[in-house]
Specification:
Elements (H helix, E strand, L loop, with lengths): L9 H5 L16 H8 L3 H9 L6 E3 L5 E3 L2 H8 L9
Antiparallel strand pairs: 1-2
Length: 86
């Protein structure tokens, strides 16, 4: 899978609501951001995270919102996830 290095923000801006996703301030990405970055669907992101193949966390547990560390997603896109133990 090939991903671009651009920040996922265009789709949110077109909806006239800020996504608040900026790596400089340490913000996490949501499912939409990851799907945009990896050029795939949100359903695929949910499926891969649920199967444990895509790094992400659920905020609030259970059915809480999924969030992803942009650095981990970039590692995944380069085929370097999971990181090798030191």
């Amino acid at each position: 899978m090939e991903a671009d290095d651009s920040e996922p923000q265009g789709a949110r801006l077109s909806r006239n609501r800020p996504r608040g996703v900026r790596t400089a301030d340490g913000a996490m990405w949501d499912v939409h951001d990851v799907a945009h970055f990896l050029k795939t669907t949100k359903a695929w992101v949910y499926q891969e995270q649920r199967a444990g193949r895509l790094p992400g966390v659920r905020l609030g547990g259970g059915r809480g919102h999924l969030r992803f560390d942009p650095a981990d997603i970039r590692l995944y896109a380069r085929g370097e996830w999971p990181p090798k133990a030191a």
